[in-house]
Amino acid sequence: MLDQTRVYKASGLRLFWATMWARAYPRMVGAFRERSWMFFETILPVLAVAGYVFLYRAIQAPPEYVGFAVLGGAMTAFWLNVLWSMASQLYWDKDQGNLELYVVSPGPLMAVLLGMAVGGLVMTTTRATVIIVVCSLLFGVTYQISQPLLLAAVFIATMAALYGMGMLFASVFLVAGREAWHLSNLMQEPIYLASGFYFPVKAMGVWVATFASIIPLTLGLDAMRQLMFSSDPTLGFLSVPVELGILVVLAVLFITVAYFALARLEQVGRRQGRLIERRR
Amino acid sequence: MALSQRILDMPLVRRSDALRSFVVATWLGWQIESNWADPFLFAVYSIVRPLASVLILVVMYAVITDSAFQDPMFAYIYLGNALYILVGMVITGVSWAIIDDREHYRVAKHLYTAPMNGYTYLFGRGVARLIIGTVSVLITIGFGIVVFDLPIRLSAVNWPLLISSTALGIAAIAGLGLIMGAWTMTMARHFWSVGDAVAGAMYLFSGAIFPLDTLPVWLRWIGFLLPVTYWLEAARRALLGPGAAGFTTLAFLSNQALLAILAGFTVVLLVGSAYFYRWALHTSKEKGLIDMESGY
Questions:
Q1: What is the ipTM of this complex?
Q2: Do the Cβ atoms of B197 and A50 come within 8 Å?
């Protein structure tokens, strides 16, 4: 007798949704099951932030600069997550043989990427929160938040744009091969510098700050600093509403471009047989 | 391989497992770190990253002090950060050699079945990173002299102090790097972060970018237990001459005293690292970690 039980198969939007959560699940659950990661994931940024805080103290900077460094240090967690767990992820998946499984499964690759972003965002938000709390307590940082809803909107727009950029990078890094590692390394300190992670980006001058605004954290950090600290308002690069508007545009742009780039690069990868190659 | 082959053909090297392993590992490390990547990307990666790192501090300093680059504090910060590149490179380099061999290239078991000396092999892998780090340090300092007019005049540099302190300092750091690398061999998890964590902690406590006096009193003593603190102080004195006298943290120590302390650290760390490596190798074999692939 044949089993007549009908097997439920997700398709269309449901398949997209299910695939996304399936990819996000190990990141969200893994962050809590392997709690010892928290030690290294928070202690390293705290050490870096502490170095910058003591430097500011050594040169007698105003107290709000300590807060700028703490916030910037916490935001590095998101940037590192985008670089190493988004941009380089498909390259690593290829290296470990997972990418071909993604490709031959019915789930869309875009959903896999979105799942990586959602899982990474949840995992990293936890870590960034710990960094902010620990550093704020250690260094006595005080915040003055008068517009919490606007702050939340800026944060959400920044993350949407940032992880959209991560999805785009993932597609590009897929064809970069083993140099993906170097590309990720290359985009650490130079981006910390250009985007003003540890100082107001306005200090870099109008042109550098404008070019660096393509990195969503540049404007996101600048807006968050304006909304969280009682510093001189002229330290901000642009007004908060303008920065929020640009971040929304960047989010839409990056996610759309990532969609087309992924489709194109997947096609190229299939033709050239590069989706399954492993060069060490 | 031509140069390393000539060295390998030398009778002394041919007879010694330790020297042969060291030479081959140095050559291998160099190939991994440089030749396998695109040369342009490698150059950008070795130059842009260190420069960006020091420019972060420069901008922070300039914003607060209104670009007072002639103040001795600026030279202190700039030089400390530039020289620290070597510390990070060597300490994380040896740990990464273990991770690369074990996880990425998956050749650890082949290596340890070959007739090599594992300790000097790791030493050699660290040397490759040291060479790359040295290039970055020279470029960063040269950039500082040209762009920010760092008060370093080649004719005024105390070369004997610079060379002797750097040789001792690097050897001590290499000993520390070997301990980190050996420790990595015994770890099943978190091995990615060991080198970075130690290098990060030493960056904070060694007074690399701010005088130790800035730290709270209850943390300051940690800096006095690190060889890097004494090496950075000696190197600053050698490079800046009288300009370094403004920093009072270790002013009570003469140059000779700094060198003697560094020599003590070097001996302890090198001998300690050899014993620690033996213990770590045995432990990693016993626990089946020598060729472990975690898949992280």
A1: 0.87
A2: no
